Amino acid sequence: MAKYKYIAKDTMGVETTSVIHAESAEAAVDYLHKDGLVVLSMREMKESVATKLGSRPLFGARVPGATVALFTKQLASMLHAGLPLIRALYSLAREEQNSTFANILVAVANDIESGEALSSAMAKHPAAFPKLYVSMIKSGEHSGTLDTIMDHLVRYMQRTEGIKRKVKAALSYPVFVVGFAIIAFIILLIKVVPMMSQIYDKLGAELPGPTKVVLAVSDFASSSFWVFVLVAIALVIIYRLMQQVPTGKYMIDRMKLRVPIFGKILEKVVIAKFLRTLGVLVVSGLPILEALELSGGASGNEVIERAAGRISYLVSKGGNLSSGFHATGAFPDTVVQMVSTGEETGKLGDMLSSVSDHYDEQVESSIEGLASVIEPLMIVLVGGLIAIMLVAMFLPVFHLGGAVRQSM
């Protein structure tokens, strides 16, 4: 699909300049005419090779979740307004700024025109529509409540994207400080310390113990720099390979949950995501076994995914859901009790959404509290580390006068 820049006037004579995605210039003009616009000029916007490459999903890249969430909200509004599905998809594709996603929407609309269902058309594009999303759309199609399911999806995606943004925002500053500290530390060790060492060697100064330690560390780091780089690359490769193997991923995810302080927050995040997903799928009418499978995968953690598989097995053997949650040992008693209450009252979906909201609030509170403590702590630690190194390197300066007299 090409991109065209146009100038047009509406029925009130107001001039508008914008961009539209269409199969051809003629198609673009037709779309604008249907929207009540009179086209004054139209030109195709040529993309550079770099732009074209940048718009394609390399190495399995996915369409951003925020982009899909906005599309879902817009599509739900259009369906509620009574707009035909195909027309809504084409309209959203024309206005979509992400070229990759715009092409996907056109492909989905074309498949629907050819007789395919929306869910099966979306299933061809997992980079934009994950299995969970497709399953919910399929459930809406079968029950005839697609617009209602879209509303559930909108709320679900807005909540999950909101939590994700807050977690990233809270961790971005500490990560920046740590990264800056590492770079500063490396520059001091490899560049500054050797320069000071050469000066002290020429003067024949007697070096204090702390300075000798720093110089020894600097010599080791300078001579073994590429060894550190290779080890770091090897660790990244090993980590990636382990993530591809279920056993390796389980070990990594289990260790993440056991990291002091951060592990507890991550545990609340993945449990909340699992419960929210399960609640939305139950309300959407999916069978409980399928809902458990999809929710486990959506949690993003192999420990919770295996727990969901265990629950699914126990339920398939005739057990109830709350007993399955309790048997895994992966969920707190609060969750088990809420699930049990939901089963007894017949409002399982509502209970799951309620307990996931509770965990989301705890995550937000924990992140805010952690951010208020970790920021000054990081500054003190980083500043202290660099200060110790600088003091150790400049200690000989206090004896520099004597060293100069000895060298004369």
Structure report:
It is a single chain. About 3% of the residues have low confidence. This protein has three domains: 45 residues; 94 residues, Receptor-associated Protein (Up-down Bundle); 236 residues, Up-down Bundle (Receptor-associated Protein), CATH 1.20.81.30. The protein is mostly helical and 408 residues long. The radius of gyration is 29 Å and the shape is extended. It contains 18 helices and three strands.
Summarize the helices and strands and which ones pair or pack.
Elements: E1 2-9, E2 15-22, H1 25-34, E3 38-44, H2 49-54, H3 65-80, H4 85-95, H5 99-113, H6 118-123, H7 131-143, H8 146-203, H9 209-223, H10 225-244, H11 246-258, H12 262-283, H13 288-298, H14 302-316, H15 321-328, H16 333-345, H17 348-394, H18 400-407
Antiparallel strand pairs: 1-2, 1-3
List keywords for this structure.
three-stranded antiparallel β-sheet, extended, 75% helix, Receptor-associated Protein, 408 residues, single chain, mainly alpha
Identify the CATH homologous superfamily of the largest domain.
Type II secretion system (T2SS), domain F
The structural domain count equals 3
Question: Could you please say which CATH topology of the largest domain applies here?
Answer: Receptor-associated Protein
Estimated helix fraction: over 70%
Structural class comes to mainly alpha
